[in-house]
Specification:
Aldehyde Dehydrogenase, Chain A, domain 2, four-stranded parallel sheet, alpha/beta, about 425 residues, single chain, Aldehyde Dehydrogenase, Chain A, domain 1
Amino acid sequence: MNEQNTIGTMMAKVGSDARAAAAVLATVSAEAKAQALNAAADEVWAQRATIIAANKEDLAFGAEKGLSPAMMDRLMLDEGRIQGIVDGLRAVAAQTDPVGEVAEEWTQPSGLHIRRVRTPIGVIGVIYESRPNVTADAGALCLKSGNAVILRGGSESFHSSQAIHACLVTGLKSAGLPETSIQLIPTRDRAAVTAMLQATDHIDVIVPRGGKGLVGLVQREARVPVFAHLEGICHIYVDGDADLEKAKAVVLNAKTRRTGICGSAETLLVDRAFHARYGDVLSEALISAGVEVRSDGSLKGSTPAKADDFGKEFLDMIIAAKVVDGVGEAIAHIRHFGSNHTDAIITENDDIADQFFRQLDSAILMRNASTQFADGGEFGMGAEIGIATGKLHARGPVGAVQLTSFKYLVTGDGTIRP
């Protein structure tokens, strides 16, 4: 049997097992799911030395591949980040179970009583790069929402993801749930990705989490529906009525806290009135922090911007910047160059903030807050499976609730239609 047939056979088995597990999970109690997640959290912490050792193998592989510092940062695990994984698992376990929740109910004049009830989607496929914590986040959120999940981690995080996945399986066993509820594809072969994208009999939705290349590939080739964002081209507009200290704090945090995440600011727009009052204080602060500021020439001390720097996801200590004439020009710029991910305004003017919120259609809009908060954990979701920028079904951070569908439960009393 050739390698292509081997991958196909393996994926058919994984898909069939996931579909069978999904049928069980659809009716599992909230207590059993919480037990599995808490037990998984215990095991992750107990196995932290094993996970860190596996991660060192991945870091060596990433260095050999020449990953950028930002990508290496995404890949790296230490005790602090493992504690974050543990906290995320416990937070998801503690959330209200969305399955069976009555989202809406009403009674018709005919006498029919109708309830719209949350229900699992079925089988979720998650394809991701670099960040091994996605293994735990995606596994936890899919389990919480009653879905089976098939995980395909990136080649860079191969060993770390396997070590974390083993802890999730331990949690499932402890709660008496099917071990195949959370499956990790045990190969770096790209053919497994292609097989997932075509598995319409086994997978109900695909969630890609990674760079533009991966997400673009998934959106082009998937026959299964996709929840995705293509890029995190996040803008910060500093309005003429912005508070200087708030602006400095937010801009520096949004760019420098972690440059390799999708909520990192990639473009700074400075209102001309703010610039006239305070000069190049924001660009100077960024440069002092080690950021390369690429400007159209309107900010002193910056590097000249290239034609494609606006609308680019740097994921590095680089930011594009320019001076604009008011909120209208800022909105027009974001509409043209943005990716509908996360955009922020710094202002003390309620009317200007309202205009910014009304006229932009990004999945997340913020006022006087860092774009680094574009994260399901920071939204109180415990974790996220990604940030969706489409307009159908899920938008913004995709947590457990967003991984449910719904069905209508209709009750009559011998009711007939005239």
